[in-house]
Amino acid sequence: MEKARSTKEETIIREPLAPQEVAVSSARAESATRPAPKMSRSPFHGLWALTNRDLRKWYTNPFQLAISLVQPIVWLGLFGKALNFGAFVSGAGGTPAEQTQVLLNIFGTSSYFSYLAVGMLASIILFTAAFSGMSVVFDRRFGFLDKALTTPVSRGVLVTSKVLQSVARSLVQAGIVLLVAVVLGMDTAHFSVLGTVGAFGILFLMAFALSSLFVTLALKSSNWQTQMAIINLLNLPLLFASNALLPITIMPTWLKYVVRFNPVSYAIDAARQLLLGITPATSLNSLPVDFGVMIAFCALLGSVGVVMSWRLLQE
Fold this sequence. Notes:
The chain is mostly helical.
């Protein structure tokens, strides 16, 4: 009986392995001899993955994109077309030539609608950047931020990804608003490829700087109501205390100083010079000054965002 049991055990031991077991065994042997994968030590590790994660929520939801475009298009179609400054001159008995000259002296262009259209490009960038911090708040509330902090991704990358997704959204929406403005009658006589690239270049600097500001303000916030209060506190002053809607020449003296201190004014001023051909004589500053201010503003707020992420973002 013992001999029979021994023979049976040998038969079981010598029984060939199933194909699945052979595959598993081979995989284990291969993994044992394969060198361990090297961890990416790049300071930008995970940047695209995190940026695309937020962008996917946006471009897969066309309704959200449509809603974000309603306000600037309404401003263009209603406010821009209704507020006809040329009619004030002609109503006072001015000739068409005098009407054109008055508009050129005040706005630097004979079309207030075109003047306002460039201001609306900055407006949509401002409002999109303001809501970039909301993504940080919701990621913290739903636990994603805590999980991301346990990965090898640096804290600076977490902040930069939020900023870049906001910048991408801002520029796409600004491009759509520009196309709508052209359809509605914006003056395109001074449009050029170089001018358009330059205008969107300074709008990029504006979007990056403002997104960095609002993301930094949201780093320790877990209450969306607090973030909304911050947005409402900063958005309207940044918009109305700038040259987005009206030129600085017709503003009271105290407001002129505020407008010159507002970096949004420099981005709008440069975009108008590049898209509408407005001369420096009727502008806030020359193009080199506008770009210099925006580059410094962008570098300052971008650096502050990264530094504050090291201090405020904790597991």
